Automatic annotation (TrEMBL):
PANTHER family the record matches: NADH-QUINONE OXIDOREDUCTASE SUBUNIT A, NADH-UBIQUINONE OXIDOREDUCTASE CHAIN 3
Keywords: Cell membrane, Membrane, NAD, Quinone, Translocase, Transmembrane, Transmembrane helix, Transport
The enzyme's E.C. designation: 7.1.1.-
Role according to the record: NDH-1 shuttles electrons from NADH, via FMN and iron-sulfur (Fe-S) centers, to quinones in the respiratory chain. The immediate electron acceptor for the enzyme in this species is believed to be a menaquinone. Couples the redox reaction to proton translocation (for every two electrons transferred, four hydrogen ions are translocated across the cytoplasmic membrane), and thus conserves the redox energy in a proton gradient.
Family affiliation: Belongs to the complex I subunit 3 family.
Organism, as annotated: Mycolicibacterium insubricum
Protein name, as recorded: NADH-quinone oxidoreductase subunit A
The keyword Transmembrane is annotated on this UniProt entry: yes
Catalytic activity, reaction form: a quinone + NADH + 5 H(+)(in) = a quinol + NAD(+) + 4 H(+)(out)
A molecular function GO annotation: NADH dehydrogenase (quinone) (non-electrogenic) activity
Localization terms from the record: Cell membrane; Membrane
HAMAP family, per the entry: NDH1_NuoA (MF_01394)
Membrane spanning residue stretches: 6-28, 62-83, 89-111
Length: 120
């Protein structure tokens, strides 16, 4: 248990900081609400009526961009352990990571070519 004590203390400090920050913001923050502040905000999309009341299509571009971010973010998650253990794995790890990176770059080039990175 002594091995985990610093981690538990750090977790407790982080939790206290998070709860304390929210609590202080609630206590001393301004309370001037208006219609604009009470409306939902999502990625710059103008608020619309509930789905059943309008005939508008919902722009899916925001979610495509988020999914692309997640895919390329996962690539970084795989790079960290490889970088830490690279010394012990040798040339095999280098070849495998180059194949992985080539696959990711092919996917990136495909998304770029298809216009998935264009915002307009």
């Amino acid at each position: 248990m002594a091995l985990y004590t610093p981690i538990l203390i750090l977790g407790a400090i982080a939790a206290l900081f998070a709860v304390g920050s929210v609590g202080i913001a609630l206590l001393i923050g301004p309370r001037r609400y208006n219609r604009a502040k009470l409306e939902a905000y999502e990625c710059g999309i103008e608020p619309v009526e509930p789905a059943g009341h309008t005939g508008q299509r919902f722009p899916i571009k925001y979610y495509l961009t988020a999914m692309l971010f997640i895919v390329f973010d996962i690539e970084i998650v795989f790079l960290y352990p490889w970088a830490v253990a690279f010394d012990r794995m040798g040339i095999f790890a280098l070849v495998e990571m180059m194949l992985f990176m080539a696959t990711v770059f092919v996917a990136y080039a495909y998304v770029w070519r298809r216009g998935g990175l264009e915002w307009d």
